[in-house]
Amino acid sequence: MERIYIKDLRDYFGKEIELQGFVDNIRDLQYVQFLILRDYTGKVQVTIEKNEENSKLNAIVSGITIESTVKIKGTIVENEKVKLNGYEVIPSVITETSRCLEELPLNFKDSSSALIDTRLDNRFLDLRNDNNILMFKIQSYLVQCMREYLYENDFSEIHTPKLIGAASESGSEVFEVKYFDRLAYLAQSPQFYKQMAMSSGFDRIFEVAPSFRAENSNTNRHTTEFTSFDLEFSYIDSYEDVMQLEENMLTYAITKVNERYGEIIKNAFGTEVVVPKTPFPRVKLPDLYKELKEKYNFEMPSLDVGDMNAESEKLAYRYAMEKYNSEFIFVTDFSPKKRAFYHMRKDGIPQGFDLIWRGVEITTGAQREHRYDILKEQAKEKGLGADVEFYMNFFKYGCPPHGGFAIGVDRLTMLLLNIPTIKESMFLFRGPNRLTP
RNA sequence: GGUCCGGUAGUGCAGUGGUUAACACGUCUGCCUGUCACGCAGAAGAUCGCGGGUUCAAUCCCCGUCCGGACCGCCA
């Protein structure tokens, strides 16, 4: 029999259908039993009167445990009495297809009733929560829309290695892996390979893949393994082209997410999807600090001028909202000391940016230095030598001017849905103290 | 890595230097004329994170250790 989803039941009134799902709840009264069936599209009430004719069904329902899975054949009928959607299933056959054997280790229906650590220990159950399932449908759609935008703009998706032979930048923040009789590293970014694709003439590429960072970071927005949405493209005139691509892509994706999920997100997560307007405001870091000083009496600790910290990111958001009514703001003109050697510089200023959304950094991007001699000089200045030799070769044989950026998908999801921690906005969190499940 | 805070039934929490460690949800049993967060009654369920110390006596005080949380740093 054809599989019917609960969300489509309205199309089958009066017909015999077959449903499958989890037993969400059972209310076993004296003369009637109610079984609430749940699949990933919704819930429906299955009603069984207690009588001679139904004695077999009554026995099955009495013996069933909540969260077992069942297959139900029955007829879907309208009934005003039912508060859940106004219809119910009158079953002819109920088959238990798997059994929940033990008491659940947490009440996944109420996320606030268990600590995040308990939830992560039992993530497969925690994810049965309606909002969690919804969150991943939305994340999936968001990424689909970003991909869609790029495909429409002649980008191709590539897949770069995550096992690498040399630590890509500093070496201090990569995981070592035993690789036969020597060491390998887990990629902390596809940066070098994205640029290799530019050198290879791929012109416009992106990748959605894991990145690994061996940083002992304990915050609500860091994880040792995250999904990075990376892209790189050629023949740009400046990093302004990179910012434009990013704001257009995000606006396209958020517009579509809002169309499909805006109302649902408001109801489920209590937060508004705000479709941004392009162009996003842009501010130079020194100018931003002048404004933050004037408006909020904020001053960076002097050692950190040329970079941002958590507080200045939050204030940058406040500033963007108050002055531009924008949740997004591009910040440019960081100190070269704080930026990677491969960022192009002009008059000593890195030609790159951070994008702050709702007070959190979601992107670093830049025009890259594609001129061999200058790049070599900048690498030397950062103390990089043999480790980047293979990379330097990309620029010896002609390489288009290019740039790109990376977005953290899990952070993006967290911010879009106003989820308090990245531990919840990724399928399985990985942190300094968590490698399981 | 730093600072602060926490670890007590399945889950979330209360509490005490000494008798039976309280409460809510969940679980189980019985009852209940259609429930819809069903309701009612009862029952079971806790080496009080682990190791050491102080004490007549430690779940409680002290030290160590492990685990976790919030914020900061690092970044996506």
Strands across the major sheet, in which order? 6-10-11-18-17-16-13-12
- How many individual helices? 12
The percent of residues in helical segments reads 25-40%
Strand count, sense and barrel status of the largest sheet are:
8 strands, mixed
Q: What's the end-to-end separation, in Å? A: 36 Å
Global Rg: 27 Å
Textual characterization of the structure:
This protein has helices at residues 55-63, 116-121, 123-126, 130-152, 191-199, 239-269, 285-296, 310-324, 372-381, 389-392, 409-416, 422-425; strands at 16-28, 32-39, 42-49, 69-78, 87-98, 156-157, 163-164, 176-179, 182-186, 204-212, 225-234, 282-284, 328-332, 345-346, 349-350, 352-357, 360-367, 402-408. It is of the alpha+beta class and 437 residues long. The protein has an 8-stranded mixed beta sheet, sandwiched between helices. It has a 5-stranded mixed barrel with strand order 1-2-3-5-4. Strands 7-9-8 form a 3-stranded antiparallel beta sheet, with no helix packed on it. 31% of the residues lie in helices and 27% in strands. It binds one RNA strand of 76 nucleotides through strand 1, strand 2, strand 3, helix 2 and strand 11.
